[in-house]
From TrEMBL:
<keyword id="KW-1003">Cell membrane</keyword>
<feature type="transmembrane region" description="Helical">
    <location>
        <begin position="137"/>
        <end position="170"/>
    </location>
</feature>
<protein>
    <recommendedName>
        <fullName>DUF2029 domain-containing protein</fullName>
    </recommendedName>
</protein>
<keyword id="KW-0812">Transmembrane</keyword>
<feature type="transmembrane region" description="Helical">
    <location>
        <begin position="176"/>
        <end position="199"/>
    </location>
</feature>
<comment type="similarity">
    <text>Belongs to the glycosyltransferase 87 family.</text>
</comment>
<feature type="transmembrane region" description="Helical">
    <location>
        <begin position="272"/>
        <end position="291"/>
    </location>
</feature>
<feature type="transmembrane region" description="Helical">
    <location>
        <begin position="303"/>
        <end position="320"/>
    </location>
</feature>
<feature type="transmembrane region" description="Helical">
    <location>
        <begin position="97"/>
        <end position="125"/>
    </location>
</feature>
<feature type="transmembrane region" description="Helical">
    <location>
        <begin position="340"/>
        <end position="359"/>
    </location>
</feature>
<keyword id="KW-0808">Transferase</keyword>
<dbReference type="InterPro" id="IPR018584">
    <property type="entry name" value="GT87"/>
</dbReference>
<feature type="transmembrane region" description="Helical">
    <location>
        <begin position="366"/>
        <end position="387"/>
    </location>
</feature>
<feature type="transmembrane region" description="Helical">
    <location>
        <begin position="206"/>
        <end position="228"/>
    </location>
</feature>
<dbReference type="GO" id="GO:0005886">
    <property type="term" value="C:plasma membrane"/>
</dbReference>
<dbReference type="GO" id="GO:0016758">
    <property type="term" value="F:hexosyltransferase activity"/>
</dbReference>
<dbReference type="Pfam" id="PF09594">
    <property type="entry name" value="GT87"/>
</dbReference>
Length: 409
C-alpha cells in the first residue's frame, strides 16, 4: 500500500488553488474597500460596488418611479442625484426582479447591503448543502473565489446560483420545487435560456408547468405592483441599456467578460464580428448539449453540460457569475455521483472552472481572455465523458451462472 502524503489528496490541491486566487483580485479589492480608496469603496461609491443598482432601484420603485429605471438617461439621473455620478451603470433586470429587492429601499445602504448579500449567500449554501448531502460543500464554497467576488461586488451571483442549481439538480427528485426555482430564475432570464430545450427533450411536464406558473405569478404581481409601463419600457424602450453595456468600448469592462462576445470585443473585434464569434460558440454549445442527451449520459454529466453550455451560449457573463459552474465543478471533482473521482486532466480542468475568474483575469493582463476557451474545453470533455457513460450503459449485463445438476421435477 503506497504511503499517504498530503500531495496525494485532491482536497489539498483544490484548497491551494482557491487560496492562490484569494491573494489576487479579491485581496486587492478588499483593501480598496477597507481603506476607502479606489472604485470599491470611497465617499461616493460605498463598498459592495454594484449593489448601488439594487438599492437605488428599490428606492425608486417604492417611490413609484419603476418605469424610470428602464430609460438609461432617467436611470443615470437617479444615480447621479444620489451619488454624484452614474458610474456608467445601467438597469438590465426585468420588472419582476424588483419584487425581490423592493424591501431593500426601506433600509440604509449598509444595512440593505448586508441583508441582501447575507440572505442570498445563505440561500445558495443551504441549497448546495441539500444537494450535496453534507456540510463539507459549505466550507469549500465559502473559500471559493466566486464567494469573495460576489460579496465585494455586491452582485446577484448567489441568488442566480442558488436558483440555477436548485432547479436543474432537483428536477429528478423534486420536480415541483425545481419548477419553482426555475420560475424565479426568470428574474435573470439569460441563465435559463437553454433550460426549456432540455425540459422538452426530457418531457419534464411537471417542471415546465410549475416554472411557467411561478413566472406567471411573478409577472402578474409585478404588473399589479408597478403597472404595465415598466414592462413596455423593458421591451420597447428606444434607448437600450443592454446595448450600452454590450457595445461599450471600455477595455476594463471587456476584460472581466467570460463570454465569447466579450472576449472578442476585448481582442479588438467590432461588435458585428464579435456577434459572429458568439454565434459560433453558441451553436457549438447547443450541439454539445444535444450530443450529451443522445449519448445517454448520467444525470450529473447532463446537468454539468447544461450549465457549461449555458455559460458558453449567452453573450453576457461576468467574472462574478460563476456560482453554478463552481458547484457543478466541485460535484464532478469529488465524484459525488460515481465511485471514482475523475482523472488528472479532467480534475485540472474542473479546478480551472472553479478558479476561472482569477485565470481569466491573469491571462487578460497579457491580452488573452481564456474564459470562453475553458467553457468550450469543458463542453468537449463532457461529451467524451458522456460517450464513455453511454458505452457502459449499452453493455449487456453479465448473465447469471446456470446451476449445474439435474432439475427436480
Amino acid at each position: 500500500m503506497p504511503q499517504f502524503t498530503i500531495l496525494n489528496d485532491r482536497r489539498f490541491w483544490l484548497f491551494f488553488a482557491f487560496m492562490m486566487c484569494q491573494f489576487g483580485y479579491p485581496l486587492g479589492a478588499f483593501n480598496e474597500w477597507w481603506t476607502q480608496t479606489g472604485v470599491f469603496g470611497n465617499n461616493n461609491h460605498p463598498g459592495g460596488g454594484d449593489f448601488i443598482n439594487f438599492w437605488v432601484a428599490s428606492r425608486a420603485a417604492l417611490e413609484g418611479h419603476a418605469s424610470a429605471l428602464f430609460d438609461p438617461q432617467n436611470y443615470s439621473a437617479l444615480l447621479t442625484e444620489q451619488f454624484g455620478t452614474d458610474y456608467g451603470y445601467r438597469w438590465l433586470y426585468p420588472p419582476h426582479f424588483l419584487l425581490l429587492i423592493l424591501p431593500l429601499g426601506l433600509f440604509p445602504y449598509g444595512l440593505a447591503f448586508a441583508l441582501f448579500m447575507g440572505a442570498t449567500l445563505l440561500l445558495y449554501l443551504v441549497i448546495a448543502r441539500r444537494l450535496w448531502g453534507g456540510w463539507e460543500i459549505v466550507g469549500w464554497l465559502l473559500i471559493a473565489p466566486v464567494t469573495a467576488l460576489g460579496l465585494l461586488n455586491g452582485q446577484t451571483c448567489f441568488l442566480v446560483g442558488a436558483l440555477f442549481i436548485g432547479g436543474v439538480y432537483l428536477w429528478d427528485d423534486r420536480p415541483v420545487l425545481a419548477g419553482i426555482f426555475l420560475g424565479f430564475l426568470t428574474v435573470k432570464p439569460q441563465f435559463g435560456v437553454l433550460i426549456p430545450f432540455v425540459l422538452l427533450i426530457e418531457r419534464r411536464w411537471w417542471v415546465i408547468g410549475t416554472a411557467m406558473a411561478t413566472a406567471g405569478c411573478l409577472i402578474g404581481a409585478s404588473v399589479i405592483a408597478f403597472g404595465v409601463e415598466p414592462w413596455r419600457e423593458f421591451f420597447v424602450s428606444p434607448l437600450s441599456a443592454s446595448n450600452d453595456v454590450l457595445l461599450a468600448d471600455r477595455t476594463d469592462l471587456m476584460g472581466i467578460h467570460l463570454a465569447p462576445f466579450g472576449a472578442a470585443r476585448f481582442l479588438g473585434f467590432s461588435p458585428a464580428t464579435a456577434s459572429i464569434v458568439q454565434l459560433g460558440f453558441s451553436l457549438f454549445a447547443v450541439g454539445a448539449l444535444s450530443a450529451t442527451h443522445r449519448l445517454q449520459a448520467r444525470p450529473d454529466t447532463k446537468v454539468a453540460m447544461l450549465i457549461a453550455a449555458t455559460y458558453l451560449f449567452i453573450p453576457y457573463v461576468l467574472f462574478y457569475d460563476l456560482a453554478a459552474p463552481t458547484f457543478s465543478a466541485l460535484s464532478l471533482y469529488f465524484g459525488r455521483q460515481q465511485q471514482n473521482a475523475p482523472g488528472l486532466a479532467f480534475s485540472i480542468l474542473l479546478v480551472g472552472v472553479g478558479t476561472l475568474s482569477f485565470i481569466n483575469g491573469a491571462t487578460t493582463l497579457i491580452g488573452i481572455p481564456l474564459g470562453p476557451a475553458v467553457f468550450a474545453i469543458l463542453c468537449a470533455a463532457l461529451i467524451g465523458r458522456a460517450y464513455q457513460e453511454g458505452c457502459e450503459a449499452a453493455q449487456p449485463l453479465p448473465r447469471a451462472p446456470v446451476p449445474r445438476g439435474r432439475a427436480i421435477a
